[in-house]
Amino acid sequence: TLLSPKYKSKFNRLAKIHRSLTTSYERNLWIALPNLQRLQKRLGIPDAVAEDALRIYTQTVKKKLTMGRSIDTLLSASIFAALRVHGIPRTAEEITKIAQIPKKKVIKSYRLILMEVLPKLGMKVQHFSADRYVDKFNEELKLSMQSRNIAVKLIEKARDSGFNSAGKDPKGIAAASIYIASKICSENRTQKEISQLAKVTEVTLRMRVKDLQKYANIVD
């Protein structure tokens, strides 16, 4: 079907603008910006984070790091990096699910950004301890503040008793503490429910539960 005069005029204007973007850098940003806005809206991230994600993404394009990487992969990695710069504990899985990009590709691009881009921009990511994830998961599971406080104290007690969390996913530790705390407070949540939310396996959750029970001296 033929375009109506109104839409034909609009299409021609857009085509003219697109032709005027002579460099691949400009064309890339022309495509990337609306995609970033779409991801920002769907992820519900603050404007300040989106602005830094754009700064990060723009730098990856300037440094010609786009070879073999899709726009949405780099955008997702840039958003993940910006969230960590701002200290907002969103998981890579949350981003990749909405962006519909394989997690492996986004993490690979994120590591590249970590080494090649953030130092250039004077940005540093914050590394999240399990405590930070406790607040996030507790809120999403609609558990009480009492349950949250017990979960945090469990982690603190385990650390004080010699529990070494190095090399262990903080999400798994947070999930385990919440599972135990929810049982103590009679706000029971299943292992399946918590592991799915935390994006860890039920096997990992059970292992971390055993760790916390051992070091925090809790009898099941």
TrEMBL record:
GO BP terms in the entry: transcription preinitiation complex assembly
Domain Cyclin-like: 34-115, 132-214
Statement: the UniProt record of this protein carries the keyword S-adenosyl-L-methionine: no
Gene Ontology molecular function, alphabetical: TBP-class protein binding
GO cellular component, one term: transcription preinitiation complex
InterPro entries: Cyclin-like_dom (IPR013763), Cyclin-like_sf (IPR036915), TFIIB (IPR000812), TFIIB_CS (IPR023486), TFIIB_cyclin (IPR013150)
Keywords, ordered alphabetically: Repeat, Transcription, Transcription regulation
Family: Belongs to the TFIIB family.
PANTHER family, sorted: TRANSCRIPTION INITIATION FACTOR IIB, TRANSCRIPTION INITIATION FACTOR IIB-RELATED
Protein name (database record): Transcription initiation factor IIB
UniProt organism field: marine sediment metagenome
